[in-house]
């Protein structure tokens, strides 16, 4: 029941934002009483905190599947991008804005996810690509890891890419293509074309 409530709340928050959704609406959508929701969550803040933890854990599992199934560093990135695309399509940008502004403890959870799992994944992918000869070996990995993290953050930030002007999905595709093109060797470019069907040009 608790997971069902979390899944329902995440879907509603992702679609309509947090502020506009009440505990009563979440209960109604689950087909349960509001009292049952409060048996599992002390209040809305507690629910939001657990929704964010549920969301990041789910995202971790999906990205770990991309890492393990990618035949090389390039395919790992391509699979990860497709997973991020699915996530982006399901999230209203207002959700992240409201988390940052009104839910500091939940926002802290997202920042910790970014600073631990995401940063580690970027670095390990770069190291893998260098070992495989698909990424340039003359990069400063610390700088490029930080740069990639900043790219991802900026794509989700409505101050840099307002939803009224930019499609979040397209922004993520473009910044990722820019990133891969910048770190890849000629053999890496050939693999990009092989996996995406998009010819890489100088």
From TrEMBL:
Residues 22-41 bind DNA. Gene3D superfamilies: Homeodomain-like, Tetracycline Repressor, domain 2. Keywords: DNA-binding. It comes from the Bacteria. InterPro entries: Homeodomain-like_sf, HTH-type_Tx_Regulator, HTH_TetR, Tet_transcr_reg_TetR-rel_C_sf. Residues 1-59 form the HTH tetR-type domain. This is HTH tetR-type domain-containing protein.
